[in-house]
Specification:
GO terms for molecular function: polygalacturonase activity. With about 475 residues, the protein is mainly β. It has 4 helices and 31 strands. The chain has a single domain, classed as Pectate Lyase C-like, CATH 2.160.20.10. The chain is about 10% helix and about 40% strand.
Length: about 475
């Protein structure tokens, strides 16, 4: 009897131990949610869709708010969030849509079809151009609005055709266009290569002695048009034939951790151009190019630029504004914690004679200059020829603050240049904590001022004794020009 009891107890302990082990194991085991991809019947590729293997280095997060910089910013070129196994449909342009990815075969249709398929589906979709592949893509437009949100994940390389003659005659102004693509994201750890060298060498280019008014259209690499709540993150972009990025008529744009590069003499290759757009955040980005690092055009409101490094190039520019008598409105622009190196300009506002409208509420704060030719410049006599004449109207420039602008300047010109309109003077220009020394030699050049009203709140190096105190007599008339 005692033996039977002992055997029964032993069996019970074995069963209990087995149950407990199964329970512990079950708490650590989870299933991966999988989603099917449904390419349309005309899409190239295998008959049955396949789910792409998911990278292991992170998962996508929701786009950050438009005005809040990250507390721990990633370095430019760092891997952007990758497609996740949990909740995203992944549309692999090679596995599901027949892209070749050898850099020679035209993969335009495959990538465009993947976008269209993801755009038509509900939920969160990721169009994946995988690492280790190079995709030749001709000029194309990625069109919304989409049913859900679409992320174009570039972990490989996207290359443009290198020969200008191969581009359609009526499509030489843009390469990759995102039109009405609300809520989309363009991100990844890959490269977008505009192959701009042969465009820059065209005889009509200004640095080749040609005229920009001739038949010299060159494509913008990435243009976002009428697209709201857009995120661009983590990519390297190089050698655009013209502007690298252009945002037109958008609202809610976040650009983060980009590396943008082209040669110092490449013409008109602005890094990021913003026009008729509002609520823009540009952070943690490095730009080295042949023109403006960031350029802000007419109709731009609420732009915050932080932790951006520029140079060589033409610095951070507002303008040019008011060309051919046009009305231009720009307000609420902040540039903070930037570095500008070996550039023609540092922080610049440039307008044409004869325009109207206003530039107001602009702050440049904590900007480091390194051998910059014109660290601080307002130029209301901007002109590309010698035939421009003075006019009785101008874009009104007011409420501009320069705080903590320090570093060195190229001695070919004065470190501070305020050239304001005879008819519409600049008003309420404020400087504090400005220290600019020559990059070579001991002579400190005096600032230049023309018809500029403002003040300094701390000692300035070099001293700016040429500011006019108070307000101009026609300040009420000039203030009526304000757009906001």
């Amino acid at each position: 009897m005692e033996a039977r009891t002992a055997i029964a107890l032993l069996l019970a302990l074995v069963v209990a131990a087995s149950f407990l082990c199964d329970g512990v194991h079950s708490r650590h085991h989870h299933h991966t949610k999988r989603h099917s991809v449904r390419p349309p019947s005309h899409a190239p590729g295998p008959a049955g869709p396949r789910r792409a293997p998911s990278p292991k280095h992170g998962s996508p997060s929701a786009p950050p708010p438009a005005r809040t910089p990250p507390s721990a910013p990633p370095m430019p070129g760092a891997p952007a969030p990758a497609p996740s196994d949990d909740g995203d449909n992944v549309y692999d342009v090679i596995k599901d849509f027949g892209a070749v990815g050898d850099g020679v075969t035209d993969d335009t249709d495959a990538i465009k079809t993947a976008w269209d398929t993801a755009c038509q589906d509900d939920g969160e979709g990721v169009v994946l151009a995988a690492a280790g592949h190079s995709f030749l893509v001709h000029t194309t437009t990625f069109t919304g609005p989409c049913q859900g949100s679409v992320t174009l994940q570039i972990d490989g390389t996207i290359v443009a055709p290198s020969e200008p003659t191969t581009w359609p005659a009526n499509s030489k102004r843009n390469w990759l266009v995102f039109y009405k693509a609300d809520g989309m994201a363009l991100r990844g750890s890959g490269l977008i290569d505009g192959k701009g060298q042969k465009w820059w060498d065209l005889p009509c280019k200004p640095h080749k002695g040609g005229s920009t008014h001739g038949p010299c259209d060159s494509p913008v690499a990435l243009r976002f048009f009428m697209s709201n709540n857009v995120t661009v993150q983590g990519l390297r972009v190089q050698d655009s034939p013209e502007f690298h990025f252009r945002f037109d008529s958008c609202r809610g744009v976040h650009v983060d951790s980009l590396s943008i590069s082209s040669p110092a003499l490449s013409p008109n290759t602005d890094g990021i151009h913003v026009e008729n757009t509002q609520d823009v955040l540009i952070t943690n980005t490095v730009v080295s190019n042949g023109d403006d690092c960031v350029s802000i055009g007419a109709g731009t409101l609420n732009v915050h630029i932080e932790n951006v490094t520029c140079g060589p190039g033409h610095g951070i520019s507002i303008g040019s504004l008011g060309k051919q008598g046009s009305r231009a409105c720009v307000a609420n622009i902040t540039v903070r914690n930037a570095v500008i190196r070996h550039s023609d300009n540092g922080v610049r506002i440039k307008t044409w004679q004869g325009g109207s409208g206003s530039v107001s509420a602009v702050t440049f704060e904590n900007v480091r200059m390194d051998a910059v030719r014109n660290p601080i410049i307002i130029d209301q006599y901007y002109c590309l020829t010698k035939s421009c004449e003075n006019a009785t109207t101008a874009v009104f420039v007011s409420d501009i603050t320069y705080a903590g602008i320090r570093g060195t300047y190229d001695v070919r010109g004065p470190p501070i240049h305020f050239g304001c309109s005879d008819a519409v003077p600049c008003t309420n220009i404020t400087l504090s904590g400005v220290e600019l020394l020559p990059a070579s030699g001991d002579t400190v050049d005096s600032p230049f001022c023309w018809n500029v009203y403002g003040n300094t709140t701390t000692p300035i190096v070099p001293p700016v004794a040429c500011l006019i105190e108070g307000v101009p007599r026609n300040v009420d008339e000039a203030s009526s020009l304000k757009c906001y």
